[in-house]
Specification:
Chains A, B: Its EC number is 2.7.1.59. The structure is a homodimer of 353-residue chains. Chain A has 353 residues and is an alpha/beta fold. Chain A contains 13 helices and ten strands. Helix content of chain A is 45%, strand content 17%. In chain A, the strands form two sheets. In chain A, strands 3-2-1-4-5 form a five-stranded mixed β-sheet. A five-stranded mixed β-sheet of chain A has the order 8-7-6-9-10, sandwiched between helices. The mean pLDDT of chain A is 90.
Chain lengths: 353, 353
Amino acid sequence: MKRYRNGEVWDFEHEVAVAANRPVILGLDGGTTSTVCICMPVMPSSDSLPDPLPVLARAIAGCSNHNSVGETAARETLEQVMADALSKSGSNRSAVRAVCLAVSGVNHPTDQQRILTWLREMFPSHVKLYVQNDAVAALASGTMGKLHGCVLIAGTGTIAYGFTEDGREARAAGAGPVLGDWGSGYGIAAQALTAVIRAHDGRGPHTMLKSAILQTLNLSSADELIGWTYADPSWARIAALVPVVVSCAEAGDEVANKILKEAVQELALSVKAVVQRLGLCGEDGKNSFPLVMVGGVLEANQRWDIGREVMDFISKEYPGALAIRPKVEPAVGAALLAWNEFMKEYLQEAYRR
Amino acid sequence: MKRYRNGEVWDFEHEVAVAANRPVILGLDGGTTSTVCICMPVMPSSDSLPDPLPVLARAIAGCSNHNSVGETAARETLEQVMADALSKSGSNRSAVRAVCLAVSGVNHPTDQQRILTWLREMFPSHVKLYVQNDAVAALASGTMGKLHGCVLIAGTGTIAYGFTEDGREARAAGAGPVLGDWGSGYGIAAQALTAVIRAHDGRGPHTMLKSAILQTLNLSSADELIGWTYADPSWARIAALVPVVVSCAEAGDEVANKILKEAVQELALSVKAVVQRLGLCGEDGKNSFPLVMVGGVLEANQRWDIGREVMDFISKEYPGALAIRPKVEPAVGAALLAWNEFMKEYLQEAYRR
């Protein structure tokens, strides 16, 4: 990504010859490691989507979580990545009809309002703006832009997020490792590290996690795990141990199996909490609804398949849950969401005239 | 504390008239918030200790945990606080017979060796040097310098540490919040915060912890807890919520009671692991041994007394466990330990001559 000095971000709008004034949509997915922006043309109808989707440009930048990098840096990153995507697609801000910005760290209406305020300054007043938690983009990537159903994300962190067709929303988990996201990759790996320490100091049963983890980290004793753990506060570095836990569980280690089974229950519980609060399953518990499943923890294609176990758990309670593994990335989900919402409002306005 | 430029730390040794060349001992307790150094005269016999103990000087400085502030800063702080204590007591390094440096962050023989190496450069070669984890100073503060028995510390963090009379040692827990120190103040408070989030998003039962914690932190909704939690990485800030959990448990809240009961079991389990591994209780499990109990979590003088519950738990298994609440601070324990070890080696050398 190019770096511009203050104010130069949008200079390309005067420099390049802008292609036919084709209306476009921007979708952004801002996670804790990177931010992706997708530019798509406004498609005439939402009845059937073209396959493949007509993506005009894709731009990528660093972290845009304001909790992690601060307000100013987050804003700069988001502005830059949108400018890059528009520039790459030979378009500019006057062609934009709607923007959906789905970023991690949006946990409260005040977060949403703060981002909307400065996003408003950036675009003409007729542009439709939507600010959401990044989980919402993941949901939309499975439902092709429709805000209906539940998404379960389990990567380094975990969250369940859902919407009813009439716009009510609910979430569960997603509060980070200190606040009990035990089904996350970080949660699974931290439990495994804890089991190693407990086996080592006599508080817990023997487990093959000890030799497997020490070997993976190239450490010679469990005491050295303490120094390793606190040397770097990155949650992703700890979560990277999940495959070791899965291997030990597959090899029959009881401690590793217990950790994974508890993670499955935790993940299923998050989905259940959202489904119950929104009544997605209907009064008889049998209504069908999309359940989008995303993230490294749910994608392990090994014998011990966490995603499948979670789905089995949920299907028993809610036979109408339709598991969806998205085929497009979350930023495309965000763009489809912006387009969907834009079309809805556009048609409503046309109807009123 | 005065701040000296490099190399000036020991200047006072030439500047002040040094009192009678009375042999002295230094004891240091280096925790994660502060470092205390005590200077005591060498007492002639270890049979009966004078009451009060003849403390010549006490100096205090900041954090000296090398994991937290780095090697150089830790060394500077330790050197400075020793110089201050000697200067205050009108003494100097030539009068020192033994030093016990008990600092947090000593988890491995390599940590110990690194600190010993630079401590060696600071003192004449005949000075006896001992480097220990800070838990050892807490044990010695209860046993008046003898390395025998078990200490349980539960403040922001928790650790159990024990020694047999013939010098074997063992520890349990003390691996920090990521690695499962669930009985610590941080562990108790993090479980309570988690319970609030789970009650709020429908994953857990209702609990009065929610209103109690939100009121204490001056927040209006549970969603705001996420921002509060990650705004500051200090473990002590989270652990400060323990009294709120105790109050809710006393008022009959089931969730708070469960958290405290589990913490009691975790703390007792740490002690049990150390006692078992060292055989402190003898073969019939009834031998007597000192059990020193230290730290804010164990000192709550409320109706829900965590320390008493832990002791009840341990007494059932080990009727010979003698609970001790130290009357002197850990730095005095470190000084007594240095003095004790020095006397032992001194008598052995005298015997050989």
